[in-house]
Amino acid sequence: MTQQISELPTPDDFPVVFNQVTKQFSETVFGLDHVDARFERGRTTVLLGLSGSGKSTMLRHINGLHRPTSGTVRVLGTDVGSASERELRDLRKQIGFIFQHFHLVGPMSVLENVCSGRLGSLRGPRFSLLTYPRAVKSTAMEQLERVGLADRAFQRADTLSGGQQQRVAIARALIQQPKILLADEPVASLDPVSSAQVLELITRIAREEHLTVICSLHQVQTAVEVADHIIGLQSGRKVLDRPGDNMTSEDALHVYDRVAAVSDDEEPAATGTASQTTPTVANA
Ligand SMILES: Nc1ncnc2c1ncn2[C@@H]1O[C@H](COP(=O)(O)OP(=O)(O)OP(=O)(O)O)[C@@H](O)[C@H]1O
């Protein structure tokens, strides 16, 4: 083997690779602008940036909801730009997604919500918990144990707290046995204690399962604490790309520098709220 070949990133080492990716939504609106990025297996990468900087656009390229205008996005070896709809469907089966608002079915039991993560691989509709195969229910219980909610399995999902609901959503994503876990502001609706629990859970599972986790956040201090790697975006351009080790929140706040420079007269955001879209240094 030549040295050159062994140095190429393989889908096994780097399941997600962006190469000069531009996403143009209109003549003047760029979601992403010539972005290069690699996401390593078993590690948690946090995307930072102001509202509108391109974090969700980046996540949506990874599960094939967007295709690049130019450049390439390779996910688990699939070129998202040229993949057929069927290839994208197969790809999505290997990608779990966690949302800010959990997206659980409130009146359904916690266990049934977790089982529903397997719907993509089962034939036909499921009308109740009884119609899921026993093996699926037992795997769902294992996942609930893992997120510390086995004792809530038969409770309605909408009777749980926000942090508990997000842990159910994580169990639902894990039952898919994904290789990649995408999380779009997964703690934006949670209090600081629940946020820390949810992020600790996600990063621990990433290491245990060798999952590639890509997570957008607005809380800078939290990002620095949990991330193995941080990518910062500003108006669709990548302005930061470095390991989280030894990184301070001041380092990470440079992601917002240019914006701060044009709004020097304005009061800086002091603390975070559930729905904020500006950066905060939580717990600082
Ligand atoms: N479907 C779309 N059509 C047109 N413009 C879009 C579309 N999706 C995103 N954009 C634009 O692309 C840019 C990046 O948006 P994106 O949603 O990726 O930002 P974000 O960093 O995820 O923001 P937030 O933190 O608020 O979720 C914004 O200017 C946005 O208005």
TrEMBL record:
The biased composition feature labelled Polar residues covers 272-284
SMART domains hit by this protein: AAA
Where are the stretches annotated Disordered? 263-284
Ranges of residues in domain ABC transporter:
16-260
CDD domains to which the protein is assigned, alphabetical: ABC_PhnC_transporter (cd03256)
Which spans of this chain does the record mark as coiled coil?
A: none
UniProt protein name: Phosphonate transport system ATP-binding protein
NCBIfam families the UniProt entry points to: ABC_phnC (TIGR02315)
- One family from Pfam that matches here is ABC_tran
